[in-house]
UniProtKB/TrEMBL annotation:
Region (Disordered), start-end ranges: 1-23
InterPro entries listed in its UniProt record: Restrct_endonuc-II-like, tRNA_endonuc-like_dom_sf, UPF0102_YraN-like
Family named by the database record: Belongs to the UPF0102 family.
UniProt name for this protein: UPF0102 protein KDM87_15815
Organism lineage: Bacteria, Pseudomonadati, Pseudomonadota, Betaproteobacteria, Burkholderiales
Basic and acidic residues: compositionally biased ranges: 11-23
Length: 128
């Protein structure tokens, strides 16, 4: 016997759909950046207090990349969703990642904003 859908089921479906959209955006961004000559080091680096979608190498530099995907530019679009709180979490995660590495490579933070399928790559955005 099937049970009736609940509010938590609806929230799970929404989160799954949102996560799927995010995963597709990250894959699209990864291909775009690889075509631009960057090399993938790690996807979805997680630590307590932060996350980085893509960590890539661009020449001698290590690049920490946040990918944001929106279906439209309504409410400011993808770039506007990179809030100061999100930037702080990225900064923290980057520090944790760097502590695990030998040496201190040159680093930068980039954002790939995908609005209605159009990619905008902002390099060396200032965080912190």
């Amino acid at each position: 016997m099937r049970r009736a859908p609940t509010l938590s089921d609806a929230n799970e479906d929404k989160r799954t759909s949102r996560r799927r959209t995010g995963d597709e955006g990250e894959l699209q961004a990864l291909h775009y950046l690889e075509q631009a000559g960057l090399r993938l080091i790690q996807k979805n680096f997680l630590c307590k207090g932060g996350e980085i979608d893509l960590i890539m190498r661009d020449g001698d530099s290590l690049v920490f990349i946040e990918v944001r995907t929106r279906s439209s530019i309504q409410f400011g679009g993808a770039l506007a969703s990179v809030t100061p709180a999100k930037q702080k979490k990225m900064w923290h995660a980057a520090q944790v990642f760097l502590l695990q590495q030998s040496g201190q490579p040159a680093c930068r933070f980039d954002v790939v904003a995908i609005d209605a399928g159009k990619i905008h790559w902002l390099q060396n955005v200032i965080l912190g």
